[in-house]
Amino acid sequence: MSDGPIPPADLPLAARAPGKCILFGEHAVVHGRPELVLAIDLPVQVGVRLGTPGRLNGDPNGATANPYYRTALERLWAGGASLEVRVNSRVPRSAGLGSSAAFCAALAAALSAARGGVSRTELAERAFAIERAAQGVGSPGDTAAAVGGGYLSLNAPGGAEVFRFTDGERSWTARRVPDPSWSWVVAYSGLPRSTADAVRAVGVRLAAPDGPALLDEFQRVAEEGIAAVRAEDRTKAGRCLDENQTLLATVGVSHPRLEALLEAARPAIVGGKLTGAGAGGSIVVLPQPGRELDAARRIARAGGLPFVVRPEPNGAALVGSAGDDLDDPSA
Ligand code: PMV
After folding, report:
1. What CA–CA distance (Å, rounded) separates 202 from 131?
2. Which of 18, 192, 208 is nearest to 98 (CA)?
3. Which atom of ligand 1 is nearest to 253's Cα?
4. Which residue owns the Cα nearest ligand 1 atom 5?
5. Strand partners, 48
6. Residue 3 buriedness (CB in 10 A; 0-12 / 13-18 / 19+)
């Protein structure tokens, strides 16, 4: 696990951060309830060097078009020399697998390194501040995973405290949850969607009279799910995934495509749910022991794009010079 600071480094440089999948509690976490998030071994890598201002992957209007990039430059590079950025990502975009959080974390790590380095705690705050300002809504769960790596709970009891966040209105404490040594399968439905739109729609739904009771149910399921992961109880964790899916459907963010993928995987899994904002995006399933490939094949046959994933224990980190395993940044 990487828990040290990001050291100072000279441009050009490259940084990397993992994508994530949320196992329990998305949406409810925005309202301060518990979540369990897992950094996965699908990385986003950024290369940063002096160059055409605001250029992103060869697009001279990159900073105008990409709010995360623009916000990162405004917050962490004010008055600095002209930069251009190249991104290589194994995480599909707008898919609920944390591509924007990983981009914010990796870019914040690179810019902070070029400005003298940063502690990991401060990097987590910077990455959250960038994502939140660019997106307008949301919790620090995704950026905490991208900076901290591994399994992290938010606002749930037990485990060493890793980060603490506030947006002035709510606060969140991220704590370490041990890895039960399971492989997971995540799968993209092929339907992109907007996190901000889904979060706002769920906010409206939770303002209905049964909203507080629904949030209490989200909390119960997340706490039981986290306890099941801590106890390495796969059967119980699977049941909690299924219960969490029912709640997400109740607040309106499931989708027939997601349900079809979950149904297709069913014979090979102990449980599953949508992951991330929903309304499209991705699912995560917990396979029966040794049936990861079977689950992935069933999902692929039903039209999803599956990835068998393991936890990525390392959060955001520098990866040497910008030339290392990057495409030509001038392309
Ligand atoms: O779909 P993603 O990867 O943007 O995840 C969103 C998770 C939410 O709980 C819905 C919002 C948040 O910021 O926590």
Report:
1. 19
2. 18
3. 10
4. 276
5. 13, 85
6. middle
Confidence grade of residue 138 (pLDDT, cut at 50, 70, 90): very high
Nearest CA to ligand 1 atom 14: 139
> Residue 81 burial by CB count (10 A; 0-12/13-18/19+): exposed, middle or buried?
exposed
Is residue 20 a part of any domain in this protein?
Answer: yes
Question: Strands of 305-309's sheet, edge to edge?
Answer: 269-275, 282-287, 184-188, 305-309
Give pLDDT tens digits for 87-118.
999 988 889 999 999 999 999 999 999 999 99
Distance 219 CA to ligand 1 centre (A): 16
In a domain, 112, yes or no: yes
Determine whether the shortest distance from the Cβ of 23 to ligand 1 is under 6 A: no
Tokens of 14: 């490259």
pTM over 0.90: yes
Q: Which of 154, 199, 253 to mutate to test the pocket of ligand 1 (most atoms within 8 A of CB)?
A: 199
Q: Position 74: which residue type?
A: E
* Strand partners of residue 308: 185
**In terms of domains, do 33 and 65 share one?**
yes
SS3 assignment, position 198: helix
What is the phi-psi region of residue 203: left when phi exceeds 0, alpha when psi lies from -120 to 50, beta otherwise? alpha
- Map residue 275 onto helix, strand or coil: strand
Indicate whether residue 275 lines ligand 1 (CB < 6 A).
no
Domain that residue 233 falls in: 184-309
Rounded to 5 degrees, what angle do the CA atoms 132, 40, 317 make? Answer: 70
Query: Residue 181: how many CB atoms within 10 A of its CB?
Result: 8
Same domain for 164 and 284?
Answer: no
Same domain for 139 and 28: yes
- Asked whether residue 192 falls in the same domain as residue 156, the answer is no
236 in the same domain as 120: no
The CATH number covering residue 303 comes to: 3.30.70.890
Q: Is 243 helix (H, G, I), strand (E, B) or coil?
A: helix
List the structure tokens of 229: 């992961």
Q: 232: how many CB neighbours lie within 10 A of its CB?
A: 13
Residue 18 · residue 314 · CB < 8 Å:
yes
